[in-house]
């Protein structure tokens, strides 16, 4: 869906509407009033002033959002690294516990065999 918009001097249509980046003329932007994006716009025509589109169109909000997303990505990557390190520590601990468990199981098996060989007085 295409909206009629203004750029400095390119892409003019037959009805003097310019297509490109959406922005108000300099005066409408300064006064913070609605601009119809014509050349000249209705506001400038009604006040008999020159209608210009020279003020650069800044997208600060998008830069902040992009910066915020990059920060989130960085934070997420750092959390993943920490979690991976913790996982490695837990894997080592589980391995040690498995070894100890096998030792204990072996000892229990030996004790069970001894109990069967000796008469029980319990």
Structural features, described:
By secondary structure, the protein is mainly alpha-helical. 57% of the residues lie in helices and 0% in strands. The radius of gyration is 38 Å and the shape is rod-shaped. The relative contact order is 0.08. The N terminus is likely disordered.
Helix and strand pattern: HHH
Find the structural class using helix and strand composition: mainly alpha
Q: Gap between N and C termini, in Å? A: 90 Å
- What are the low-pLDDT stretches, counting only 5+ consecutive residues below 50? 1-15
- Share of residues in helices: 55-70%
Shape: rod-shaped
Oligomer: single chain
How many helix segments?
3
**Count of beta strands:** 0
User: What percentage of the residues does DSSP assign to strands (E)?
Assistant: under 5%
Give a quick account of the main beta sheet: strands, pairing sense, barrel closure. none
**Whole-number average pLDDT?**
78
Indicate the radius of gyration in whole angstroms: 38 Å
